[in-house]
């Protein structure tokens, strides 16, 4: 994500094959297979990733991968999101949806409508995006969109995630969750608990987060958290994504995973 200051699921954090909560990290696929990857999402039991040259790949849980579409076909993608079995991207300010089976893609909505988009997540059949001025938008799958809340209400958000029917943001080092239907937000946990967080991913009722020093934490819906594994375990990796109860990370171009 070229413009992305939010972490949607996607920081590389150094790991190695070490014990985490009595479980081991295991290498998936061959060493170095992911050295050119710049973005990844989980969808339908697979990982879909874009390389630096804009080429899309699909990887299964055993590490077997295949190129989808033509080489460089996604070279203008700034945002990558998985929604209802499809891959959604923002490219040159416009929104596109891609069927991973046929790799057929089409533009959704008007050209340039997403040119100010900085972060986007999927939830309950819709896309939620924050623009550079901090304003939140909701987009239907036909491309129609509407503003949610007031102008700039999410201007202090550094991270954005969706989980359990809520939008989760880190603002000024504090975690918040927003109920979109009621348009009501509330602080979760203590003020400043997340001031050192650099990445987070939501899966099966938990937020997984990594701090600046590479320490991994697991947080429930009420803000109760616990350290997972030894301090600093993940300080050299660059991607984090959760899928089907497992965490996947990329370290030095190699994919690893462990059960959450």
How would you characterize this protein structure?
- A 4-stranded antiparallel β-sheet has the order 3-26-25-24, with no helix packed on it. The protein has a 4-stranded antiparallel β-sheet with strand order 4-5-6-7, with no helix packed on it.
- The chain has 260 residues and is an all-beta fold.
- The chain has one domain: 7 Propeller (Methylamine Dehydrogenase, Chain H), CATH 2.130.10.
- The chain has no helices and 26 strands.
* CATH architecture tag: 7 Propeller
- How many individual β-strands? 26
Order of helices and strands: EEEEEEEEEEEEEEEEEEEEEEEEEE
Q: Proportion of β residues?
A: over 45%
Could you say what the CATH topology is called?
Answer: Methylamine Dehydrogenase, Chain H
CA-based gyration radius: 17 Å
> How many alpha or pi helices?
0
- The figure for the number of domains is 1
Q: Class, according to the CATH hierarchy? A: Mainly Beta
Mean model confidence by pLDDT: 89
Share of helix, binned: under 10%
Q: Based on helices, strands and strand pairing, what is the structural class?
A: mainly beta
Ends apart, CA distance between termini: 25 Å
Uncertain segments: 1-23
Q: What sort of overall outline do the alpha carbons produce when their principal axes are compared?
A: globular
In the CATH hierarchy, what is the superfamily? YVTN repeat-like/Quinoprotein amine dehydrogenase
In spatial order, strands of the major sheet run 3-26-25-24
Biggest beta sheet summary: 4 strands, antiparallel
